[in-house]
Amino acid sequence: MKYSHGAFNVVIVNQRVLLVKRRDFPLWDLPGGVVELDELPSEAAIREMYEETGYEVQIDYEFARYIDKTRNDCQHLFKSHIINGELKRTTTETRDLRWFSLNQLPLFIIPNRKRQIQDALTIKNFEEHEISENWLISLIRNLVKK
Q1: Which CATH class is domain 4-145?
Q2: Which residue spans adopt a coiled-coil conformation according to this UniProt entry (predicted)?
């Protein structure tokens, strides 16, 4: 079965995680997006981070892969750190960008992201997990399509 692939960065500095507010969904998300054809997930994570935030990152490691079999979706999650760049508050893909305390994540965040941020703090070796889309995301996805 063929999966769509996404790549996302978890960047944590001083117990704060960097999140972007998406334009296509009114929710906070990790910086990242679609892995293009002939692109490695790590390359996509670096590219998407720059496009969405203005920051250049270096990948520390891929800590987990999350597979949603009902949507044929595979998400690669990377622990990354900023090496250069200037913050862009808004882009064509994002409405806002903020640093959030790890113990005060926003209410309107993509639901699986809370778990993935926690996993970034605890997983030391690569893991693979099965996930399913939250009902809220399904509803928003259907509303956005119309």
Answers
A1: alpha beta
A2: none
